[in-house]
Amino acid sequence: MNLKEELIGIAGAEAVTDDPGALASYTVKHSLRPAVPPNVAVSVRSMEQAQRVIQFANEKKVPVKPSSSGVHFRETGPNLGGILLDLSGMKRITKIDNRNRKVTVEPGVTWAELTEELRKEQMRTIMPLLPYGDSSVLVSCLERDPSLIPMFEYGELILSMQIIWPTGELFRTGSAATVDYGKEGNFAEGCYPYGPGPIDAMRLMQGAQGTMGTALWANIKTERLPTVNKSYFIGFENSEDVVEAMYAIQRKRIGHECFAVNSVDLASILAKDTAGDFGRLERRLPPWSLLMILSGAKYFPEDKIAYEKEALLEARNHVFPFAEILDVIPGYGSTRSLPGLLRNPWPADRTYWKERGKGACQDLFFITTLERAPVFVDAVSRTAAEEGYDPREIGMYIQPIEFGAGAHVEFNLFYDPGNREEIETVERVYTASIGVALSLEAHFTRPYGRLVSDLVYEKAGSYAMLAKKTKEILDPNHVMNPGTLCF
Fold first, then answer.
1. Cα distances (angstroms) measured from residue 181 to each of 191, 253, 456
2. Angstrom distance (rounded) from CA 294 to CA 197
3. Residue 244 vs residues 148, 252, 323, 364, 405: alpha-carbon distances, Å
4. Rg (CA), the chain
5. Over 70: is that where the pLDDT of 34 sits?
6. pLDDT digit string (tens) for 116-127?
7. What is the Cβ-side half-sphere exposure of residue 380, based on CA atoms within 13 angstroms?
8. Regarding the domain delimited by 3-86, which CATH topology (the fold level of the hierarchy) does it fall under?
9. pLDDT of 1
């Protein structure tokens, strides 16, 4: 019996395919280096089916790669053929718990689906910057995509989850691992992220790109939708000034969404079309823009916003008096649309904002201290110019983390996926910029793809050795997404 036939015995004929066209759809679509397609894909609808597929792969020593959505970014697709475990059909939102402010989702639940369901309950979860609507919420949380709200409590959204280890064993993290989890009246269920025992197993899954195990469901933090919002735009001529402004604002502990983008990224987000409106808007915008939303929830929302606005004006007067705090965006219009824009995934009927200009984008991102973000802006711009890429065409995004204690710094290198010369140029810029960023002590918490992971793990030898030892314990037959990290 061949691989396909054995998988049909587990999930049924309609769930298994080895058609080349269907398999190609699972490879990376948004990467300089597309991945190798799997030999066979199996779509599962339940925990039991997923567990049986992984147990089968472990017994037969066949590589298996979990996949949770039809959108694959950053070279996280299958690498060595084998079985593609398609979890995108596991779409249950099993519980929205308003009291404990959490929601339980399966891996196939997308940002578009979850946002819609939570809105019915006047709730929301905290998003990264304009995610693809069809991308998996659970994967985004596991990969720690940075929150637009730089508060401590939103740094990590997963509270607890259920995992299948590569051997096929089931495991629960956090208070979901307690014996009375799920019983009626247990109002704290699934809320404590660490749970019993000294080992935090959730950390083994975060940023591991499906190499340590497969998440079946997770409890994710939610918040009540603000009832009142006030949005602001502040323009700056350089990254140094916008960083100083963010520091001043974060010290005040005010606002919800707060981040900075350069004119290229903001025009990509706001332009009505890329043919003419993008250029017009990009020319009207300042080099850097700080976008901020003050929000008030259920109790005394107007009072809260009034206090925070006063604190914002005080920060401006002391630190960046040369900048205006506006409720309009030059060339675009009122900032009143920002909450609706930033608290929803990118609309399905519009070309994704990172693909609007040239069709594809390679992201370079890492963590650093907020004050050092301008150092990286200058370094990557110089590197791009040296490699023949116009730095004025690079999108840039700075997201403060934990009230400015750190920052997610991201560079978006746009290119035409049908132009071999542009692909080669971006690959040179990307590779050279990784080396420059590492020399400046950038912290790559998500080293996607061989281009970056080889360099990162070479510098972190002891960490790589520990990761390999952990992988050996959890995955003795080396079947779970092999070749993705340093394994």
1. 10, 35, 39
2. 39
3. 18, 13, 12, 23, 13
4. 23
5. no
6. 999 999 999 999
7. 30
8. 3.30.43
9. 57
Which SS3 state, helix, strand or coil, does residue 129 take?
coil
> Is the CB of residue 479 less than 8 Å from the CB of residue 85?
no
pLDDT at 281: 93
Q: Which fold has domain 228-342?
A: Vanillyl-alcohol Oxidase; Chain A, domain 3 (3.40.462)
Q: Is 75 helix (H, G, I), strand (E, B) or coil?
A: coil
Contact call for residues 29 and 71 (beta carbons, < 8 A): yes
Residue 462 CA: distances (Å) to CA of 323, 356, 465 = 46, 41, 5
- Which of 197-201, 357-361, 380-384, 440-444 holds the top average pLDDT? 380-384
CA-CA-CA-CA dihedral for 196, 165, 367, 343, to nearest 10: -80
Could you give the CA distance from residue 76 to residue 211 in angstroms, rounded to a whole number?
Answer: 10
With beta carbons less than 8 A apart as the criterion, state whether 224 and 256 touch. no
- CATH fold label, 360-445: Alpha-Beta Plaits (3.30.70)
- In the predicted structure, residue 26 carries a pLDDT above the cut 80: no
Beta bridge partner(s), residue 110: 136
Amino acid at 413: L
**pLDDT tops 60 at residue 76:** no
Strands, DSSP E only, in 207-305? 214-221, 223-224, 228-236, 258-262, 288-296
The amino acid sitting at 371 is E
Strands 102-105 and 214-221, sheet pairing: antiparallel
pLDDT of 211-228, one tens digit each? Answer: 899 999 999 999 999 999
pTM, rounded to two decimals = 0.93
User: In the 8-state DSSP scheme, what is residue 480?
Assistant: B
**Tens digits of residue pLDDT in 158-185:** 988 999 999 999 998 877 777 667 766 6
- Structure tokens that stand for 312 in this block: 């914002």
93-224: what fold?
A: 3.30.465
Q: Which two tokens stand for residue 169?
A: 């064993």
